[in-house]
Design goal:
InterPro entries: GH (IPR017853), Glyco_hydro_1 (IPR001360), Glyco_hydro_1_AS (IPR018120). This is Glycosyl hydrolase, family 1. One of its GO terms (biological process) is carbohydrate catabolic process. The chain is α/β, with parallel strands linked by helices and 468 residues long. It is built from 15 helices and 19 strands. The strands form 6 sheets. An 8-stranded parallel barrel has the order 2-3-4-5-6-8-13-15, surrounded by 4 helices. A hairpin with a 5-residue loop joins strand 17 and strand 18. It is globular. It binds 6-O-phosphono-beta-D-galactopyranose.
């Protein structure tokens, strides 16, 4: 029997985001973000036409939820402030008092319960008034975001000691400018690159503000790292393709956040294909000088890449796409989460952590998301109304074993957060896949019931590990 013991004070908990969990309440003063607006104009895009207003009602039920977090072994919890709730009109910058009250209560009650709040500032939720002005594509948004960040630090930074500037900055690029999962639903790689650049600059400016305020906490970013494996690691062309994919999707975000620079191979590629973003020379010093203190690693699945013969002209009608430079390798026999269609490759979490240890100065980090979305989970309900999600327990254990191995090899990993606490709303997939430790009955006032995995997590965290 092997024993997997984690350090004392390891951060155990879960992650959520404001837009996916809070919901919207009449009179709460929140303005539309891109999700509210997109649902109003194209409800058919959303699974079962369920939009962002139908969330797990954390806005109303946060006190009950905090008690449920205690019952499921949390000592920490990540969520995000919704920009469109706190500052309904970013052009005036006026703060919504209802939002301040809500976030104050949430933060205070979490702390009172012994659960450390980890607060993220941007989780895919561009205020619609800003999107109408170009969103992240418009440089003006960088300063508006920095103002918003500073207001958050001043309002809540006396109590919140772990801040994050953004969640998965590649996703607004992929979603909004490559693959059609987010507004503005364009296909334009050059715009995507510009957006990624503005996000990196905005993150650095928020880090600068935070450090200048001397509030005694840490600030970081949350990246979805997808270790990339070549189809055949003895074939130099596959290895080169995998290096490109890793550079575009991972290093383009890791490098500026941690090293304060952009990866030179990707910069060269941008130059070669006329994809360089517009920037000011002085930005580069801001990015260089304002690197993060703590990295959140979201890990769900790896990428696998094979070589592709690069054409002189883009393959599709929308100009160059990343896939013009590599072939997505669909590895036969890979283990799949059949519901979400994502590969399950537990060792990837270890590879991501070891990469940070070896190539990014072993910066302090933690697993900020990992999880398994399951469709029709209600079919696993037992007579007591509890979901028997043994598959989720197995999924977590299998990943934790690799986190443990990374720790043994010297990784500075400090915690593990599951996605998510309450089953919540998932962008275009709405409630198709359930991820939580706690089920939410949407037909019954969002009634909460702890799943088997929630009880297991409590036991596991009390022992700071498990045996198998
Ligand atoms: C991450 C996001 C989360 C969450 C999760 C699950 O990338 O940070 O917001 O949604 O993925 O993905 P999905 O909801 O698309 O199944």
């Amino acid at each position: 029997m092997a024993k997997y013991e984690f350090p004392k004070d390891f951060w155990w908990g879960s992650a959520a985001s404001g837009p996916q969990s809070e919901g919207r309440v009449a009179g709460d003063g929140k303005a539309d973000n891109i999700w509210d607006a997109w649902y109003q104009t194209a409800p058919e895009k959303f699974f079962n036409q369920v939009g962002p207003e139908k969330t797990s009602m954390v806005y109303q039920k946060y006190q009950e939820d905090i008690s449920l977090m205690k019952q499921t072994g949390h000592n920490s919890y990540r969520t995000s402030i919704q920009w469109s709730r706190l500052i309904p009109n970013p052009f005036t910058g006026e703060v919504n008092p209802e939002a301040v009250t809500f976030y104050n209560h949430l933060i205070d009650d979490l702390i009172a319960a012994g659960i450390e709040p980890f607060i993220n500032l941007y989780h895919f939720d561009m205020p619609m008034v800003l999107q109408e002005n170009g969103g992240w594509l418009n440089r003006e948004v960088v300063d508006l975001y920095t103002d918003y960040a500073e207001k958050c630090f001043k309002l809540f930074g006396d109590r919140v000691k772990k801040w994050f500037t953004q969640n998965e900055p590649i996703v607004p690029v992929e979603g909004g400018y490559l693959y059609g999962w987010h507004l503005p639903d364009e296909r334009n790689l050059k715009h995507g690159v510009q957006v990624a650049y503005h996000e990196a600059l905005a993150s650095a400016k928020a880090v600068e503000k935070y450090h200048a305020l001397n509030l005694g906490g840490t600030i970081g970013i949350i990246l979805n790292l997808m270790p990339t494996y070549p189809k055949d690691d003895t074939n130099p062309a596959d290895v080169k393709a995998a290096k490109f994919v890793d550079g575009f999707f991972n290093r383009s975000f890791l490098d500026p956040a941690i090293k304060g620079t952009f990866p030179s191979d990707i910069v060269d590629w941008l130059g070669e294909y006329d994809l360089m973003p517009t920037y000011h020379q002085s930005d580069l010093a801001i990015i260089k000088e304002n690197t993060i203190d703590l990295l959140g690693v979201n890990y769900y699945q790896p990428r696998r890449a094979a070589a592709k013969e690069i054409q002189v002209e883009p393959e599709g009608e929308n100009g160059w796409m990343p896939e013009d430079f590599y072939t997505v390798y669909d590895m036969p026999g890979k283990k799949l989460n059949p519901y979400r269609g994502w590969e399950i490759y537990e060792k990837g979490i270890y590879d991501a952590l070891i990469n940070i240890k070896d190539n990014y100065g072993n910066i302090n980090c933690f697993i900020s998301e990992n999880g398994m979305g399951v469709e029709d989970e209600a079919r696993f309900i037992n007579a007591d109304g509890q979901i028997n999600d043994d598959y989720r327990i197995e999924f977590i254990q299998d990943h934790l074993k690799w986190v443990h191995k990374a720790l043994e090899e010297g990784s500075n990993v400090h915690g593990y957060h599951m996605w998510t606490c309450m089953d919540n709303w998932s962008w275009l997939n709405a409630y198709k896949n359930r991820y939580g430790f706690i089920s939410v009955d949407l037909d019954n006032e969002a009634k909460r019931t702890i799943k088997k995995s929630g009880y297991w997590f409590k036991e596991m965290t009390e022992q700071n590990g498990f045996s198998d």
